[in-house]
């Protein structure tokens, strides 16, 4: 099915409930499309921080990973015959560990020539290139823990290799057990291991409906504001992204400043504990800095001032993006999926690595826990060649958009079936209440609805605190309760009076 209505695209993107979108065929003109890890290793010099994670454990926090400083040349040679003996990666085998050079601002590590290899103008942002982008280079198996970004929306371009994205809408936040430990400014993490959840510890997670997509080279993923996402490299990969600022960020800046004011002294207090646990498990992600109370209050004062004096832009960033892509046809995800070769990350052959299908959609082949769906039979070699022919035909058709769809839940449970109609609207309202208030009057109204729930959450946390004997665990519970979204909203409500 294909809908070629600019109105439908515009309505979709401008809707507050817009799901993630995969944009096909829009970056074929980028010079960055010729990049690979070997090529970049000769262009990007100097040492870069990386994190290594054992492949037997895919839910370590960044603070629990091994950190090394390596060159991109050392990364490219890792596990190969030309690997240098002096390389820090010699201590780790690629079959046992994943390595991730993640979240690097390109302007800090790349030449002007490399920066110009990116051009976000086709998405409505002609002044953006590599200077406003970050790069992510990783080996097969590297991952980013499930989290959401507090600022803006995200455009992610896949350059080399494939990545699996598992996303959840913001109105399902309560199912994902949000936490600010480890602390990272502008990132809210989930306590749930989304690929292998412990449903006894996080029973509400079974209500969540993941949106799963495998992003391939040449595709760009639009991640709407405040959407949760877990990301894993299915093979050696390069991605670049840019976060687009939004007018709603004025609210988020106040929220982040309040959080920093509250969490900083608590994290500082933890450093003074003599528990063995505190010596081996930091609550602050690498690169983050705990500021003085005076500096934190100055940041809060600035955020409040900017919010009070904000002016509506003539054209919002979301409208700019919308106008740039509104004429693209929307194609049915299931129809496209049926035309592609089904595979999971356990089924990546050498032939596929040599000839990646640039625009294929793989959603639905890997279930939400990353396990291979054995119910589908392997395609024959003849069918595989046929699918590549169809893919070439798709390229000729020109750019298009695919809407990422959620996985359907089993509706055999009567309770789930009866709740289905009210689920979406109720959870979206809850999200709006707990994550932000667009204006003082609207914020007051939302907070009235959440006062009772907030009090109940804090009461439950307090009972846990009283029963806790370990000081480090006591502090962890305290930090979680103090930085609860409803607590932050109550504070912001008071600040705006």
Instruction: Kindly estimate the percentage of residues that lie in beta strands according to DSSP.
Output: 15-25%
- Order of adjacent strands in the largest pleated sheet: 1-16-17-2-13-8-15-6-5-3-4
Distance between the termini: 51 Å
Output mean pLDDT: 78
Which residues form runs of ≥5 with pLDDT under 50? 341-396, 411-424, 434-469
Beta strands, count: 17
Shape: globular
Structural class: alpha+beta
Q: Give a quick account of the main beta sheet: strands, pairing sense, barrel closure.
A: 11 strands, mixed
Q: Quaternary arrangement of the chains shown?
A: single chain
> What proportion of the residues is helical, as a percent range?
25-40%
Q: Please give the count of helices.
A: 16
Give the radius of gyration.
23 Å
Q: Any overview of this molecule?
A:
- This protein has helices spanning 6-14, 37-41, 72-77, 106-109, 112-115, 249-271, 276-280, 293-308, 317-325, 333-338, 350-354, 381-397, 414-435, 440-467, 471-482, 485-495; strands at 2-3, 21-24, 47-54, 66-71, 97-105, 134-138, 143-149, 153-160, 163-168, 178-184, 187-190, 211-215, 220-223, 228-233, 237-244, 330-331, 400-403.
- The longest helix has 28 residues, at 440-467.
- The chain is built from 16 helices and 17 strands.
- Strand 10 (178-184) and strand 11 (187-190) form a beta hairpin.
- Strands 1-16-17-2-13-8-15-6-5-3-4 form an 11-stranded mixed sheet. Strands 10-11-7-14-9-12 form a 6-stranded antiparallel sheet.
- The termini are far apart.
- The protein has 497 residues and is an alpha+beta fold.
- It is globular and about 55 Å long.
